[in-house]
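Chain A, query sequence.
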Amino acid sequence: MRTNSSRRALRLASFLAVAGLAMTAAPHALAADSATEAQTLTSNQAKKLAENSMVDVYGDNASTSTDDSDSSSTDSSSTDSSSTDATSGTTAADTPVTFTAKSTLEGVRGTGATVAAGSDGSYFTVHSLGNIQLHKADGSTAWARTNTSLYADWQVSPLRVYQKEPYAAHILMGYNAVSPYSPYSDQGYDTGDLTGDGTPDIVFSASVGSSPYRPFTSPGSSLTTGTFVTVLDGKTGKTVWSKLYSYATNVKIVDGTLLVANTPRQNQNAPAAETATLTGIRFSYADGALTPASTWTYDTRTTAAATWGAIEDAGDGKVAAVWDLRKTSTTAGRGRTVVLDTADGSVSWQTDSELYGRQLHLDASRKRLVALEQADTSDDVKYEVAAYALDSGERTTLDSRSNVLPTAMTVGDAAKGGGDEYAVSESTYDSNLSVDSSTIRVLDGGDGNTVRWTYTTKRDADNSGFGPCTWSLTAVGGKLVASAQDDTAIDTADNAGGGRYGSLTAFTDSGKVSWRHDGVTASPMYQQVYKSGGSTDVRTVDLEQNIREYGLGNGSQKSLTPLQGELNYGQAVDLDGDKKKDVVVGGTSHGVWAYDGTSLVKGAPKKLWQASVTGAVHSIETGDVNGDGTADVAVAADTATVVLDGRNGKTLATIDGKGQYVRSATVKDVDGDGKAEVLVPTDALRVYRGNGKQLWTYSAPAGSGDVVFSDPTVADGQVYVQYTSKNSLALDDAVVNGVALNAAKGTVKWTADPKAPAQAADSNLTGAVLDRAVYASPDIPYADGHAVVYTWIALADPTVAGDLSTASARTVVEIRDGRTGEVLHQDLNGSPWSHGNYFTDDHVLYHMGFGVINGYGADGKETYASVVQPLRRLDVGTGPGGRKLLIGGVEGGAAAFDPSILTTGYSFQSAAGSVTLIGGRNYIAGDLDGDGVDDVVSLNFDRSGNDRMAQLLGSRITDSDNGIHQMTTFTLS
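Chain A, predicted structure.
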C-alpha cells in the first residue's frame, strides 16, 4: 500500500478557503465540570451553548445568507415584451423566451415527526419546513399539504414587491434546552377530533415572515409577520379553520377544546400592548368549516417578555399550563403553573416557582402533575423535577440537578417494579460550551429521586466540537425508547454538523441497550411508539426523508417508505412507449419516481411508477440494459447501484458498492451486444451487465494507494476515465492519471500520464475533477472527430510568489487524441468547484464553469464569454419554432440563452429568458409533449452528495438556502 505524505497545513487551508470553508483551531474536549458549585452563563454564553446543542430543525444554523437577495420573483423574465411568431422558423437573437410554469411537485424538507391519525393504522407526518401529510397504514400518502397550498389558504401577499417567492413556513418544532425564550416548541402541533366526524384532525402553528424576514398582509389581521394556527380536516386535509397570531408557541386539543398559547414578545411586529394569553376555543362544524362557538382567554396581563412553557391534559375536563416571566435587571424570573377548566377557562389553582416551567406531564396514578423546571442560566445552570398536587397545586421538589441541561422527559413504565417512572435526559458541557455527554436517568415515580438506572452517551472520540443530546423519550411496557443526535463523523461531509445522522435506542427495564439504529437510519429528535395488530412498533422519519418502522421487541426493520423529498437528479426518456419523453427523478430519500411527461406539461402530474432503492439518489442514467426496447434506469444510490426496469420500476439488479460512496453511474453499451452496461466509478471502475453480473474492473496500478475515479465516458469502442488519490488536495505527491480502456474487455489502450501546465505554482497536478470531467464527442474539432477531454486540477496564481498557501485551485482542460492519447491542447480555467460541464455547438467545444464559457475551436482558436446569471450547467436545446437555444440551470432557477452569446466575446450577457426558484439548480430539458419544443424541468441541488464528493478530494463545499424546494415543469414560448 502506497503511503501518501501530507501537504503542510497552510496548503490545506488554501483549498478549504477555495471551497468556502475555514480551518480553525479546535480546543480539546474537557470532561464536564464535576464541581458542586453552581455555574452561571452570560447571555452570549447561553446563546452559544444553545446553538451547540440544538437540532437544527429549520436549517437556520447552516444558512449562509438571510438577506433580501435570497428572494425574487418566480415570474418568467425576458428582456423585451415583443415576440416572434413561433411558426416562422426564424427568430432574432434578441427575441425573448418566456418560461411558463405548468406543474409543481414540492419536496418534503426539514425535521419530520409522525403522530397517530386513527385506529386503522393511519398516521400524519409533520415536517418543520411546511409539509403535512396523512398516510395510510402501508405508508402510502392519502393527502398532502404543501407550503404552496397553505400559503394560498392563508392568503399571504408580500409587502415587498421584490419578495414575491415565499420562504418555507416554519411549523413550530424543536427544543431549546438552555432557555424557553426562543422560536422553537415541542408543542407546535397536535391532533384531536374537532369536526365531530370521529376522525382526528390536526392543528399546527406555522411561523411565516419572520425568518428570513418577508413581511406580508393577510385578510383579517394587521400583523405583518406571525404564526398561522391552522386546523386541517383529518379525512381530507382541507383547511377548516385558521387564524394569524403574533406567535402561538403551543397548541393542544383537550376534551374538544383547542388551546392556543400566544407569546407576542417572540414577534418584533406584535403590538406593544399585547399580552401573553392562553385561549380555549370550542367549534361548531358545518359546510366544511369550523366556526368558534365559544371562546375563553386566560390573560397573563403582562407585556413583558413572557412565554408559554407547556400545556398538558390534567384529566377530568381540566388543562394545565405553565407560563414563564423572563428575568430582567429589575424583575426576578419565575414560572407560573395554572390549572383551568377546558369549558370556560376558570382557574382551579395557580402556583409560582422560582424556576421556568419547561414541560408538564400527568401522573394520574399519583394524582399529580410532574414538571421539568429550569433556572435562568444567569442565576444557575440547574433543573428540578417537581410535583404539583392535582387538587391543590402544592409544589414539591422531587429531584434537583446542577450544571447540566435537561433535554427531554417522559412519564411511563421504564423500569422493573410497579408504577410509572420518571425518565429525564440531561447533557453536560465542557469549558468551550460544547456538549460532551448525554445521560438518561430513570427515577422511581414514588419519591421522584431514587435512581432506577442511568445510561450515558459520550461525545465521539473524533469529535472536538458539540456532542449528542437526547431529545425524545417514550416509556412503554418496561422499555424506554430514546431519540438522540449521532455525532459520528460530525466534522466530515458524511454527517456535516450532525445534519445527516440520528440515533434510535430501545432500553430494557434495567437500562441495558435492547437494540439501536443510528446513522442515516434514525431521526435525532422524534419517534412514535404505536400498536400494530398484536405488536408494538416504533416509527421515525430519518433526515433523508424516509419513514422507517421497527419492531419494539427486537428492533428489526419492518418497512421503509421514502417520502418525495428534494428532487435533485433526473432524466427525460420515453418509459411508457407513447413516443414522448417521460421524466424519472430522485433525490434525498430512497425513492425514485417516474412521471408521464405530457401530464407534467398539462399541469396534472401522473405517476407511472415509484421504486425504492438502497440510499439517497446521487445520479440517474437511462439505457436499455435487457434488450426489451424500453430504456431502463440506473440509480447511484449511495451504497449501491440499483437497476430498475423502465416499464414498471421493478428492481432488475442491486449492485453492491463494496463499502464505497456510490455517487455516479453511466449506462452505455460497451461490448456491442445491443444491451447497455452499467459503469460504476468508486475506488475502481467496475462495469456490470444489466442483471448485476460484473463484466470487468479496472483498478489503478499497484502502488497508487487509495484512489477515486471520475465519471467515465464511452466513445469509439473505448472507455475514457481519470482518477486521483483520495484527499489529493491535501497531499504533496498525489497520484493523478487517466486511461483509455478497451470498452469490451477493460484492458488499457493508453495511459495519460498528464503534465502540469506552465502556470502551475509547484509544477504539479494536485487532483482530478470527478463530476462530468471526461467528455468525448465527434463534434470536438480535434483528432478528426476522435478527441476526448480530461479535466485535472492544479495550483496557480499565488498572490505571494513561492507561497503555495496563497495559490488557487484551477481546472486544467486537456484535449487529447482519443486514439493515441496525444495531448492536442491544454488550457487553465476556473475553480474545480465552478466546473459545470462540456458541450459542443457548431463544431466548437465549450467548457461551462459558473457563468463563464470557454470555447475551443479548430486550430487552437479560443473564445471567452460570460453571463449575468449564476449559471451552473448548460447544453444545447430546441426552443419555439425550432430555434436553437442554450438551456441551463442556475443558482436559484433556470435560464435560456441565444447561442450568439458564445461568440460575442462579451462579459455579463443576459439570458433570453429565465425563471427564479430559490431552491433550483439542476434541470432536465426535453420535449415532453411532442410539440417539437423542449420543456424545462427545474430540479434541486444535492448539497450533501456534492460535499461528500469534494471530501473525496480532500476539500469541502457548503451551500444552503431558505427556499421552498420543488420540481417545476416549464414550457418555453
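The longest helix spans residues 43-53. The first strand starts at residue 77 and ends at 78.
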